[in-house]
Design a protein that fits this description.
Number of strands: 8
Structural class: alpha/beta
Order of helices and strands: EHEEEHHEHEEHEH
Bound molecules: flavin mononucleotide
CATH topology: Rossmann fold
Shape: globular
Helix content: 25-40%
Distance between the termini: 15 Å
Number of domains: 1
CATH class: Alpha Beta
Number of helices: 6
CATH superfamily: Flavodoxin domain
Largest sheet: 6 strands, mixed
């Protein structure tokens, strides 16, 4: 029986990958075996006994790689402990509740998914690196991203604390 925990992420600009790597690091520091991989690189869940899934929210939707992953590995995930975290709000204090609602709505599309833990963290935004269609979405004056400055509201202490609580749950 395998003892490894999979930390799997979807990302467009890399901020969720960095958070997933931090979570993997904390799990390992606490005596667990953990591997961190992009969702696209996973071809089987057989090597794993638990999974921590992660993705950013874009325009109310979870990044599609994680939705594909959930659909593809439904049976395996239904039989192991699964945790989920998402990245999103760029102004974590003002936008957190809306982002949590977006996440809950997205996760409700997978009613079989029973999570041992769920978290939403602030995200990272840099208008200089946006690619189409995001660059296009940020252009109109009515866009919430119009002239929005770069920001990084990832709360690393909250991310580490959540990983610590996961380490206990998955011990
Ligand atoms: C075009 C665009 C749309 C976004 N839409 C949302 C959203 O609907 N809700 C939210 O909470 N965050 C939203 N965000 C913020 C992202 O989730 C955040 O930037 C995240 O850290 C990106 O993750 P990544 O670097 O792993 O791709 C949006 C960002 C962009 C660029």
């Amino acid at each position: 029986m395998t003892d490894t925990i999979l930390v799997v992420y979807a990302t467009r600009y890399g901020s969720t990958r960095e958070a997933a790597e931090k979570i993997g690091e904390v799990l390992r520091e606490n005596g667990l075996q953990a591997e961190v991989h992009p969702a696209r690189n996973i071809h089987s869940l057989e090597p794993y006994r638990a999974a921590v899934l992660s993705a950013p929210v874009f325009v109310g939707s979870l990044q599609k790689d994680i939705k594909r992953f959930l659909a593809q590995y439904k049976e395996a995930l239904a039989g192991m402990p699964v945790a989920f975290f998402a990245l999103g709000p760029l102004d974590a204090s003002a936008e957190m509740q809306g982002a949590v609602d977006q996440l809950d709505k997205e996760l409700a599309k997978f009613p079989w998914l029973k999570l041992v833990s769920k978290a939403m963290f602030g995200g990272k935004y840099d208008p200089a690196v946006l690619r189409f269609p995001d660059s296009f979405l940020a252009k109109p004056k009515f866009s919430p991203l119009y002239k929005r400055p770069a920001s990084d509201t990832r709360d690393w202490e909250a991310i580490k604390d959540w990983a610590l609580s996961l380490a206990e749950t998955l011990q």
